[in-house]
Amino acid sequence: MLDVLDRGLLQALQIDGRVAFSLVGEVLGVSDQTIARRYARLRAEAGVRVLGAVLPQAVGRQVWVVRVRCVPEAAVGLARALARQPETSWVQIASGGSEIICMVQAPADAPAEESALLSRLPRTPRVTEVSAHCVLHMFFGGSTSPLTKNGPLTSGQRARLRPPAAEPVTSPVDLSAADHALLSALALDGRAGFRSLAEATGWSQTRVRRRLAELRSGGIVYFDVDFDPAPFGLRTSAALWLSVAPGHLAAAGEALAAHPQVGFAAATTGASHLYASVQCGDSTALYAYLTGPVAALPGVRSVETAPSMRVFKQAATVVG
Question: Transcription regulator AsnC/Lrp ligand binding domain location, by residue (predicted)?
Answer without folding.
Answer: 241-310
